[in-house]
Amino acid sequence: MIDLGLEGRRALVTGAGVGIGRATACALADAGCDVALIDRDGAALGDAVAETRRAGRRAVPIEADLRVDGAAVDVVDRTVAALGGLEVAVNNVGSLAGLVPAPFVDQDDAYVHEVVAQNLLVTAACARAEARVMVGAGRGGVILNVSSGESTRPALRLAAYGAAKAAINHLTQTLAVELGPEGVRVNAVAPGTTLTPTVREALSDDYVAALVDSIPLRRMNEPDDLARLVVALASDLGRAVTGQLVLADNGAHLARNRPVLDAG
Predict the structure, then answer these.
(1) N or C: which end of the chain has fewer CB within 10 A?
(2) Percent of the chain with pLDDT strictly greater than 90
(3) Catalytic machinery residues
């Protein structure tokens, strides 16, 4: 049996109330981690914590809006106080900020600023707070940033979102070099379109069918697909991997005729 090396490690997951974040928190607990779950939706957070605790590990709810100045530092401090340390951090918070997909020239400055804040700036603030704790403890650690397949190709009608996620990829590489000597690995995972509850509600059946038809493996991501990848990279299976962007999109980045997302 391969030992993942995650037994007893302390982890935090942002955006853990639903979707990829919830699946990731549960998967880390199944692998032996104690987990702090962070989300701004208290009701969703309560359900996610209950599900995570079924693995028999500690699961701590932390309700917070990470867009607020200082929130990232506070969340990391509360995680360390509750769990006694931090070795694994998954920065999953990200959002289209209520976007109705549109050409970039039709998007106003306020919207672009909000998308950059909710994706790049929140991820950067969390990674900085997490890194300071990991370096200070002297035990190393793993930081995983959730990017997007849209960062690897022209993100038609999602330009600000794709650009913000691409900036996360660059930040990941830089942090991997800066933090490597301290034993901290930093990687990014890039999901393709993932069938979270929000996505299922937003996409039309016709669009989903066209998208599936364009994907080499003829399937779309489920949240558990990303959760499994996160566990592998956080574990000793990934101990030689840092500074990488790992695509998990069923081959969608290879598709030449990918449908363009529209308001319908």
Answers:
(1) N
(2) 73
(3) 161
pLDDT, tens digit, 9 for 90 and up, residues 64-84: 999 999 999 999 999 999 999
Q: Where does residue 53 rank: exposed (0-12), middle (13-18), buried (19+ CB within 10 A)?
A: middle
**Predicted model pTM:** 0.93
User: H-type helices in the chain, by residue range?
Assistant: 19-30, 42-52, 71-83, 109-116, 122-137, 159-179, 197-202, 205-214, 223-234
- State how far the Cα of 188 lies from the Cα of 198, in Å rounded to an integer: 22
HSE-CB for 196 with a 13 A CA cutoff: 20
- The answer to whether the beta carbons of residues 87 and 136 sit under 8 Å apart is no
Q: Is 149 or 126 the better-scoring residue by pLDDT? A: 126
What contacts 41, CB < 8 A, 6 or more positions away? 17, 18, 63
